[in-house]
Design brief:
single chain, 444 residues, alpha+beta, Alpha-Beta Plaits, Trigger factor, domain 2, Chitinase A, domain 3, 3 domains, 5-stranded antiparallel sheet, 4-stranded antiparallel sheet, 12 helices, 11 strands, 43% helix
Amino acid sequence: MEVAVERSDGLVRHLRIQLPADRVDIEVLQRLQKATKTVTLKGFRKGKVPLKVVKQQFGRSIRGEVVGELINTSFQEAVKNNNFRIAGQPQISDLTDVEGAQLEYRAVFEVFPEVVLADFSKIKIRRSSAEIEDADIDEMISNLQAQKASFELVDRTSKDGDQLVIDYIGVKEGLEFAGGKATDQKLILGSNSMIPGFEDGLKGASANEEIILKLTFPEDYHSEELAGSPVEFTINVKSVSERKIPELTDEFFQQFGVTSGDIDQFKAEVESNMRRELDAALRSNLKSRIMHQLFQLHPIEIPEAQILGEIKTLKEQTLRQFGGGKEINFDALPNEMFRGKAKYRAALGVIVSEALNAASLSPDPDIVKNRITEIAQTYDQPQDVINYYYSKPELLSAIEASTMEEQLMEIVLTKAEVEEEVLPYKDAVKPDPEPNYSDLLKSD
């Protein structure tokens, strides 16, 4: 076999691969001879079909199979012999396949970039911590009560926090506009779910009252047709209900899995859940800060195949999150919407992989087990969840990869300049803002 690297364009390699004629022809002949013993053709006994007849009937398809297999094996051989780390699938072109002549083709593919790991001591990281105060627990319990609140009809005028049931029709220049009409819509005053002035105009309203509001859509409203436009809403208030906050009773505690004990037991359970949330948030934010530093320290070119793979993953995640179970064509989401984030993720994948290899890290079974157990504790049947993770190789692999990244984080932290900060609980559990992915596109 002869292999020639015809051209290298950045991460793209162009190979010309040639195989001697006998490597193809001998394999084709052997398969044809084998077929004479197994094929059944009209007019011939099984195992007695002449080689010439088998070749006439099946020669082209058998040769196609052989050529396809030889292209695959010879390409893999060329990759191994040249120490290429390929990204994605090769494009095969310019195939020359003539019986008795050498097999020749061109393979074009991308390779992963060479990564020279930077000195981790150049990394500067903020590491956050927080304590859970009694006031934080009380606020969380108040939030849980609000989540379980109900609304009861009242015979009075409305105020902030009340829920109204309304019908409304909006018109612009005397004509109804798209999306400006609703029937039996529930609206909580103060939720800011409507355009400015709509909810304020309904404070002090009574059931069975008709209210006309003259409003203006914001200049930055998502509909160009309505942005900045004056409109008029005719609103029929059908009912007014006030929020009823449930009391802290045994029945309330049971809704959150506390089937025995008093308020102190409930507070302990709430604090335990808050601690898990806090630990996860602190770990996630620390990881994202380290990853961003690693990205900035290693400016590398990324194979387009890797970027496209990440774009596909991001599209799938978006459709699962916002698709509502509907079948939506991937092409409806343009690639450029996701390119910046995809480039960031693909680059980190390459950088982290190199760092893990350099540190000779492998999954620690104890750490993996602890992480799965931690996840399982948020479910009603923890052991079932643990068993499920260990029965699904793809889920287990994802946990292993995550724990290895955290092992890498510890290595980075031992060398990096770390600034400690103590935050209030509410701030500590907030996720860090994502990088400005649009800036990444400017370097393309």
